[in-house]
């Protein structure tokens, strides 16, 4: 018996009946021999963490573009917070923590430079639009390079969770597994609360600016709000699951408060006047770089030139830009517009 077999047997003994067991995975697009040590979801998690797109998250914006203060969140620290919240909820509900971790680690690898600002530009310029959750799946299945060439050949459950993590989804968009549903809620819990924290640190908001009606429900401090949301998600999900309803959910009162804070953040921070000027600059940079490579696709790295030949120039350019970090995109922009001397100085 392999170590993987032992882990899978332990899953049978410890996971709830409604949890996703590794042995029950719908598998991968390309069949592989099972790993002697790791379950399929452990293997997926490791492939994501070792990918280039995951490493680049450390230099991609969460909300505040190119912050000088190291204490602001980046897309990578957001990912880690989502993972932590997801695993806390998953442990309480006796779900598959390896599947949760794989989905959480991979859910934002398709984000653009400058966060949703870059996404808006690519959505405007790319025929058919651009959505970061769909692009995360594309990164994991097409852009990243595995042993078999294009894609990491991840389990279907992981890709489903990544695809459906975004937004307060409709019934048709809810992840197929409870583990995926947990990550979807954890994403909202994490970003609304840590974006409030960063906004107060930046002086964009004060504690007094936050809507008191929601704070009375969720709590007046960052820690209190996280604790309230996580506990409520666990308690209400347990009630649903005990009744045989396979649904991860907040209670109505807490859910309204979370959505209210989220709406407040969109109106006053994400789309607010202080961020607007920097957003406009970032949009100009992304659009300029996109249009340059659209006209000069041969200037891109060979991998993206090949995509442009096979799937169209716009697709190749979008793939190239979406993989850029904020700093790299700015550096490319500067390189394209700033004059450089062709003569070397002689001393």
Protein model, in words:
The chain has 347 residues and is an all-alpha fold. The protein has a domain at 42-274: Hypothetical protein af1432. The protein is 61% helix and 1% strand. It has 16 helices and two strands. A two-stranded antiparallel ribbon has the order 1-2. Strand 1 and strand 2 form a beta hairpin. The longest helix has 25 residues, at 178-202. The chain starts with a helix and ends in a 10-residue tail after the last helix. The relative contact order is 0.12. The mean pLDDT is 94.
Entry keywords:
single chain, 347 residues, mainly alpha, Hypothetical protein af1432, two-stranded antiparallel ribbon, 16 helices, 61% helix, flat, Diverse_Catalytic_Enzymes, dGTPase, HD_domain, Deoxyguanosinetriphosphate triphosphohydrolase-like protein, hydrolase
CATH topology of the domain at 42-274: Hypothetical protein af1432
CATH class of the domain at 42-274: Mainly Alpha
Rg on CA atoms, Å: 22 Å
Strand content: under 5%
How many beta-strand runs? Answer: 2
Question: What is the count of helical runs?
Answer: 16
The best one-word shape is flat
Terminal CA distance reads 72 Å
The residue-averaged pLDDT reads: 94
The side-by-side strand order for the widest beta sheet comes to 1-2
The CATH architecture classification of the domain at 42-274 is Orthogonal Bundle
Instruction: Tell me the series of helices and strands, N- to C-terminal.
Output: HHHHHHHEEHHHHHHHHH
Largest sheet: 2 strands, antiparallel
Oligomeric state, counting identical vs distinct chains: single chain
Kindly name the structural category: mainly alpha
The CATH superfamily name of the domain at 42-274 is Hypothetical protein af1432
Q: What percentage of residues falls in helices of 4 or more residues?
A: 55-70%
Uncertain residue ranges: none
Organism: Thermanaerosceptrum fracticalcis
GO molecular function: triphosphoric monoester hydrolase activity
Family: Belongs to the dGTPase family. Type 2 subfamily.
Protein name: Deoxyguanosinetriphosphate triphosphohydrolase-like protein
């Amino acid at each position: 018996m392999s170590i993987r077999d032992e882990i899978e047997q332990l899953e049978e003994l410890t996971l709830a009946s409604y949890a996703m067991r590794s042995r029950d995975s719908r598998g991968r697009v390309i069949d592989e021999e099972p790993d002697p040590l790791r379950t399929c979801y452990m293997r997926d998690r490791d492939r994501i963490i070792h990918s280039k797109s995951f490493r680049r998250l450390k230099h991609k914006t969460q909300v505040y573009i190119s912050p000088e203060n190291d204490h602001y969140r980046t897309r990578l620290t957001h990912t880690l917070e989502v993972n932590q919240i997801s695993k806390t909820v998953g442990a309480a509900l006796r779900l598959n923590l390896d599947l949760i971790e794989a989905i959480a680690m991979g859910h934002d690898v398709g984000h653009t430079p400058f966060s949703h600002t870059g996404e808006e530009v690519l959505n405007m310029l790319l025929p058919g639009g651009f959505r970061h959750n769909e692009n995360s799946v594309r990164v994991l299945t097409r852009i990243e390079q595995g042993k078999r060439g294009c894609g990491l050949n991840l389990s279907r459950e992981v890709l489903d969770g990544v695809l459906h993590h975004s937004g307060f989804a409709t019934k048709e968009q809810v992840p197929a597994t409870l583990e995926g549903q947990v990550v979807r809620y954890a994403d909202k819990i994490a970003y609304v609360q840590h974006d409030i924290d960063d906004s107060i640190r930046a002086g964009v908001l004060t504690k007094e600016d936050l809507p008191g009606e929601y704070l009375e429900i969720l709590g007046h401090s960052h820690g209190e709000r996280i604790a309230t949301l996580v506990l409520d998600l666990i308690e209400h999900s347990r009630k649903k699951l005990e009744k045989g309803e396979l649904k991860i959910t907040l209670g109505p009162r807490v859910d309204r408060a979370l959505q209210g804070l989220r709406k407040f953040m969109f109106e006053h921070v994400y789309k607010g006047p202080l961020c607007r000027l920097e957003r406009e600059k970032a949009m100009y940079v992304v659009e300029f770089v996109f249009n340059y490579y659209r006209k000069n696709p041969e200037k891109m790295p060979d991998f993206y030139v090949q995509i442009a030949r096979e799937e169209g120039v716009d697709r190749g350019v979008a793939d190239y830009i979406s993989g850029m970090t904020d700093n790299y995109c700015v550096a490319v922009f500067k390189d394209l517009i700033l004059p450089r001397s062709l003569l070397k100085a002689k001393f």
